[in-house]
Amino acid sequence: MISDSPYASGDLVLKPGFGAAAGIVGALLMLALLQIFYPVSQLSLGSALAGIGSVVTPAGGATIAGLILHLVVAGLLGLLYALSQRRIPYRGLIGVGLLFGFVVWVISSLIIGRFLDESLRAVLRSWPWLLAHLGYGLTLAAVAIWRESHRGPEAAQSVRD
Fold first, then answer.
1. Are 94 and 86 in contact (CB under 8 A)?
2. Contact by Cβ (8 Å): 83, 21
3. d(C-alpha 56, C-alpha 7), whole Å
């Protein structure tokens, strides 16, 4: 640990519950971004959610199941972000948020997409889905920055202490 750092770098920037809530907010922003991109991408929000929901329920109600699954997974990923993100300067939080969103997109589109049907795989690999994931990561970073701005820097413990 750097002893002259103004941050208690061992501390988490978000509490786990706050990270899960930020993940759900980020998931709702993702859906809003997909809706905004619809005129250009022709990627329907309803069909994307129905495709996600068809993984868990092949019968009716796939759209609602997709929405619930999307929010649950986003909450769990927000929890993971909160458990792994330490206190760093704001630029670092933004960079980590973008990287987190990109890595989640890669995992969802390239790895998990291999086990899904072709129509859902096309949705997961689309550029609107990538931009939505980057927005998700930025939402996590924005919540972390907001939380960090409401907490003063605490003295980091020196290695010699």
1. no
2. no
3. 43
CB proximity list for 156: less than 8 A, separation 6 or greater: 1, 2, 3, 4, 5, 6, 7, 8, 9, 10
Instruction: Kindly give the confidence (pLDDT) of every residue in the chain, 161 residues in length, as a single tens digit, with 9 standing for 90 and above.
Output: 445 555 555 678 888 899 999 999 999 999 999 899 888 888 888 888 887 888 788 777 888 998 999 999 999 999 999 998 888 888 888 999 999 999 999 998 888 777 777 877 877 888 888 999 999 999 999 999 998 887 755 544 444 44
Dihedral sign (CA 37, 39, 44, 48): negative
Distance CA 29, CA 67 (A): 13
Regarding pTM above 0.70, the answer is yes
Read off the tokens for 158.
Answer: 């020196």
Task: State how far the Cα of 121 lies from the Cα of 114, in Å rounded to an integer.
Answer: 7
- What is the rounded distance in angstroms from the CA atom of residue 157 to the CA atom of residue 137? 30
Q: Max CA-CA distance within the chain? A: 63
